[in-house]
Input
Amino acid sequence: MRTSLIVLLLLLLTCVGAHAQWRKQTVNTTASFRGLSVVNEKVVWASGTGGTVIRTIDGGATWKVIVVPEAEKLDFRDIEAFDANTAYILSIGNGESSRIYKTVDGGETWKQQFTNKNEKAFFDAIACWDAKNCIAMSDPVDGHYLLISTTDGETWKPIVSNQMPAAKDGEAAFAASGTCLITHGKTGAFLVSGGDDARVFRSNDRGLTWSVANTPIVKGTPGSGIFSIGMHDTKRGVIVGGNYEKPADTVNNIAFTSDGGKTWTAGKGLSGYRSGVAYVDDKTMIAVGTNGTDISADRGATWKKAGSEDLNAVQAKGRKAVWAVGQKGLVVRWTN
Output
């Protein structure tokens, strides 16, 4: 009887797990998305190619597709949203193609707040502590990452980047999922790198000063390094990456910290290169990439392949609000 009961429970667990999957959304666009901002269970924003921004305020039942005026040629690789009305978007590219826009009316109108004038700069990501305090970053210029910030939600000013450890030759960041730069808590910030090195830069004072830590993530080629970072609390965090030119490689593509980013320890179990990672809750984590999705239910100790969709970015605000985006208008929601 006891053996039969155990077998029955295992079968039930298997059935429950089998029904957990990505559910594709109906969104009227072919834009490719890498920017994603999950506000809550109802409100989600994403951004991508062709100057495109999308938004749902009913949990995905309907989507509004927006093309930002006079930005049709831009690729918005990152978005930071705070409610159904307020969001920043950042476009990538050399020179003036790197820009920041903001809406306060749900995307009806957009104000261009920042246009890059430095021909050497190439902006990758934006991150915010709140609706008025944000930071954005460019790949290294003259040996240092170029940083700008706003403290009023309107104007952007340079942060003196020589207060940051120098970038190594061939080291840069990946504008792959909007999570090569994140904020945490009231004053924390993290920036991750790839290429000839794979390091984690961290700041405790909103980007004024920085320290840096080495990691075991694969490095040494233009397509290898850290692509995404997630922090669960002030101590525990995760980084993922690998080599996007070899998406099936599974070596040195994940690492963990338990001391707030000071040191990083290699993990294992991902099915390949991953461009995005997110904490769902205290124990559950999810990572996405070109060859699919991996999920862990034990804080990253073990991982299970959970889908083969080609996805760029993932975000979660609890178990009922897990979203991911990818190429050619692909938007998916995790359902159990």
Q: What stands out?
A: The longest helix spans residues 2-19. Residues 1-18 have pLDDT under 50 and may be disordered. The chain has one domain: 22-335.
